[in-house]
C-alpha cells in the first residue's frame, strides 16, 4: 500500500515538473515518452523596436522640424515626450523614400552613445512611416548660436568635445558611419541649460565596412549642406570619413565667431569658395591660438592632413586644460 502511494506521489511530481518545464508526456505501452512543447516567440515576425502607432499620442503635438520628406513632431509615447519623424503619406509608397527611411532605421538601431541621439522605435508596417527618437528640450545648436551671438572659448571647447565624442564613436572602425551632413541644425542640446550636446539626424549617413584605414569611397557628390560641405564632396571626388572633420571645423568656427562661415554668401557660393581654397577669416578674440590651429588642420584641403576625431579629442582636452581659468566662469562671449 505504501509503495503504491509513493508511486502515485512520484508520478504527480513528474507531471507537475513537466507542466512547469513545458514538456508533454505521452504514456505508452513501452513507458513514458517526453517531448518538448514548442513555445511561440513573444513577438512573431516583428522587431522588438516596432511601435504600434496607436501608442503615439499627437493630441498636444507641435512641429519642431520640416523637410521635403515630411515633418518632425514632438509627441508622447507611453507617457514620455518623444520626437517623431513622420513621412508624408503621399511619399509612403515611394520606393526611394522607403529605402532611405529603412536605411536610417537600420543605422540608428545599432547606435548607443551619450553624445548620439537615442533611437526608441519605428513604425514600418503601417502608414505613415514614423521614426521615434528621444526628445531633446534644448533645441538645435543653430538656433542656440543665433540667440547667443557666439560663445567664448571655454563654452565652445565643451560643445566641441561633446560633438567630437559622438563623432569618434560613429567613426570607430571597422563599421564606420560617415554622417555626411554634420551642421549646427543636426546637433541638439539636451536641455535649456545647454550642458550637453548630441549628434542627430542620420538621414544622409553612410555605413561603411572599412577594410583599410586609408580606404576612400566614391559616394554621392554634393551630399549634405553646402555651407558645411568638404571641398572633395562639392567636387564629386572620392572621399572618406574626414568629410565630417571638415564640417566639424566649420561648426567650431561658427560657435566662436557667432555667425556661419561665409555668412555674406549664399550656401552654394560659400561651398564654391571653399572648393577654390578659400577659408573664412578669424576675427573673434575668443578664438585662442590653439583653437585656430586645430580649426585650420580640420579644414585642410587635403583630407589626409585632417586629424581623426580621437586626435581632435586629445587636442581639445589639452587646450581645455591650458585655457585661462577666468574663462571657465564666463559662459558666453561678449
Automatic annotation (TrEMBL):
Catalysed transformations (reactions): L-threonyl-[protein] + ATP = O-phospho-L-threonyl-[protein] + ADP + H(+); L-seryl-[protein] + ATP = O-phospho-L-seryl-[protein] + ADP + H(+)
Residue sites binding ATP per the record: 85
EC number in record: 2.7.11.1
Swiss-Prot/TrEMBL keywords: ANK repeat, ATP-binding, Kinase, Nucleotide-binding, Repeat, Serine/threonine-protein kinase, Transferase
Keyword Chloroplast: no
Protein kinase domain ranges (all copies): 58-319
Gene Ontology terms, MF aspect: ATP binding; protein serine/threonine kinase activity
Keyword Kinase listed: yes
Enzyme class: transferase
GO CC, one annotated term: cytoplasm
Stated family: Belongs to the protein kinase superfamily.
PANTHER family: SERINE/THREONINE-PROTEIN KINASE TNNI3K-RELATED, SERINE_THREONINE-PROTEIN KINASE VIK
Protein name per the record: non-specific serine/threonine protein kinase
Lineage: Eukaryota, Viridiplantae, Streptophyta, Embryophyta, Tracheophyta
Amino acid at each position: 500500500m505504501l509503495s503504491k502511494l509513493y508511486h502515485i506521489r512520484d508520478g504527480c511530481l513528474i507531471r507537475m515538473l513537466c507542466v512547469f518545464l513545458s514538456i508533454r508526456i505521452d504514456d505508452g505501452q513501452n513507458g513514458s515518452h517526453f517531448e518538448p512543447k514548442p513555445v511561440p516567440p513573444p513577438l512573431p515576425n516583428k522587431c522588438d523596436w516596432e511601435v504600434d502607432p496607436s501608442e503615439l499620442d499627437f493630441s498636444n503635438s507641435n512641429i519642431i522640424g520640416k523637410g521635403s520628406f515630411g515633418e518632425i513632431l514632438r509627441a508622447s509615447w507611453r507617457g514620455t515626450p518623444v520626437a517623431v519623424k513622420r513621412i508624408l503619406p503621399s511619399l509612403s509608397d515611394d520606393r526611394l523614400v522607403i529605402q532611405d527611411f529603412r536605411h536610417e532605421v537600420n543605422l540608428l538601431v545599432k547606435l548607443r552613445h551619450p553624445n548620439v541621439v537615442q533611437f526608441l522605435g519605428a513604425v514600418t508596417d503601417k502608414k505613415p512611416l514614423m521614426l521615434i527618437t528621444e526628445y531633446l528640450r534644448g533645441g538645435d545648436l543653430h538656433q542656440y548660436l543665433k540667440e547667443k551671438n557666439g560663445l567664448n572659448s571655454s563654452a565652445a571647447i565643451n560643445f566641441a568635445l561633446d560633438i567630437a565624442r559622438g563623432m569618434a564613436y560613429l567613426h570607430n572602425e571597422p563599421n564606420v558611419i560617415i554622417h555626411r551632413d554634420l551642421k549646427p541644425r543636426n546637433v541638439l542640446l539636451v536641455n535649456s541649460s545647454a550642458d550637453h550636446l548630441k549628434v542627430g539626424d542620420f538621414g544622409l549617413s553612410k555605413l561603411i565596412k572599412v577594410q583599410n584605414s586609408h580606404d576612400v569611397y566614391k559616394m554621392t557628390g554634393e551630399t549634405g549642406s553646402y555651407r558645411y560641405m568638404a571641398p572633395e564632396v562639392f567636387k564629386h571626388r572620392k572621399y572618406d570619413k574626414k568629410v565630417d572633420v571638415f564640417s566639424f571645423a566649420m561648426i567650431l568656427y561658427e560657435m566662436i565667431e557667432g555667425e556661419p562661415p561665409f555668412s555674406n554668401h549664399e550656401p552654394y557660393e560659400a561651398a564654391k569658395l571653399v572648393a577654390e581654397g578659400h577659408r573664412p577669416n578669424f576675427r573673434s578674440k575668443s578664438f585662442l591660438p590653439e583653437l585656430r590651429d586645430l580649426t585650420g588642420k580640420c579644414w585642410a584641403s587635403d583630407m589626409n592632413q585632417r586629424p581623426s576625431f580621437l586626435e581632435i579629442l586629445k587636442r581639445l582636452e589639452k587646450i581645455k586644460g591650458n585655457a585661462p581659468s577666468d574663462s571657465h566662469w564666463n559662459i558666453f562671449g561678449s
